[in-house]
Amino acid sequence: MLKLSRLLLHSSRDLLSRNSLTNGATNDFKLMRGITTQTGTTAAIPNFGSSAKIFAPYTLFKGKAALSADPLLPTFSKLESGNYRVERRGVIMLTFWPAIGERKYDWDKRQKFALSATEVGTLIAWDSNDSCEFFHDPSMLSSNAGQVRKSFSIKAHSGGTGYFFNLNVVNNVLKTNDRFTVPVTPAEFAVMRTAFTFALPHMMGWEQCINQLPLRSNQSPPTAGPEPQTSEWDR
User: Fold this and answer.
1) Distance between CA atoms of 129 and 156, rounded to whole angstroms?
2) Which among 72, 38, 66, 40 is positioned nearest to 53, based on CA atoms?
3) Which of 155, 223, 218 is nearest to 189 (CA)?
4) Which residues contact 79 (CB under 8 A, 6 or more apart)?
5) What is the pTM of this model?
6) Fewer CB within 10 A of the end CB, N or C, for the chain?
7) Closest CA to 56 of 45, 41, 40
C-alpha cells in the first residue's frame, strides 16, 4: 500500500510538471504571437489617400554639406483615344545644401541636379577608374546658353576609401558660383546604386506600362502634366 501511494504521488507530480511546461510553452507561444502580430501591424503599409504623396529621400549629412537623392516618377498626358503616354520621364533628384554650423544646414541655399535615365545608367555602370561628369544648361542651343550651368561629378578617393560627389552651379545673371562637395562612403554609394537600379524602370514609366490594369471606378488615372517643384531649376 505504501509503495502504491508513493507511485501515485510521483505520477501526480510528473503530471503537474508536464502541465506546467505545457502552460509555459503555450504562454510563450502566445507572447511570441502577440509580438509578431504587433510587429506586423506596425510594419504594415498605411492606407494613404489618393492625393497623398510619399517622400523617401536618401539623405547624407556631412561636415560641409548635405546631399539627398529622391526618385521622381514620370508624368503622363492623355491622348485623344483616352489612353496615356509619358509626357516627361522621371528623374533621380539630387539636392545639395550647405552647412552653416555643427549639424546645421541652410535649406534656402539648396541646389538641385536631376539625373536622367541615361545619367542614372551611367552612374550604375560607372567604373571608378573612369571620369563621371554631367553638364546641364536650361538654355542650351539657344542665345542664352551659358547664363546658368550646372556640373555634377563623382571622383573616387585614392585608395578606394570612398567618393566625392561634387556640384558646381554658375549663374552669370546673379553673379553667383555655388560649390558643394559631399564625401560618400563605399557603403553609401552601394545603397545609391542599388536604389537607382530599382527606381530606373519606374522613372521611365515601364513599371506602369507593364503592370497596367483596368482602372477601378474609385481609382484615379495617371497624373497628367508636370507637377510643381519637380524640376532641378525650381527652388
Assistant:
1) 8
2) 72
3) 155
4) 85
5) 0.69
6) N
7) 45
User: Going by C-beta distance under 8 Å and a sequence separation of 6 or more, which residues neighbour residue 34?
Assistant: none
Mode of pairing for the β-strands spanning 111-115 and 58-61 = unpaired
Grid coordinates representing 185?
Answer: 562612403
Name the grid cell of 93: 533628384
The Cα 96–Cα 147 span in angstroms is 20
Tens digit of each residue's pLDDT (9 = 90 or more) over 85-103: 888 899 999 999 999 999 8
* 8 A C-beta contact, residue 69 and residue 192: yes
For 231, counting Cβ atoms within 10 Å of its Cβ (0-12 exposed, 13-18 middle, 19+ buried), the class is middle
pLDDT tens digits, 111-124: 999 999 999 999 99
**Dihedral over Cα of 120, 125, 128, 132: its sign:** negative
Total residues found in the chain within this entry: 235
- CA-to-CA dists, residue 201 to 79, 164, 231, angstroms: 22, 27, 19
Structural contact between residues 79 and 87, judged by C-beta atoms closer than 8 angstroms: no
Residue of 204, 193, 177 whose CA lies nearest to 123: 193
Beta bridge mates, 168: 151, 179
How far, rounded to the nearest angstrom, does the alpha carbon of residue 213 sit from its chain's CA centroid? Answer: 25
DSSP symbol at 165: E
**Counts for the chain of helices (H) and strands (E), in that order:** 4, 11
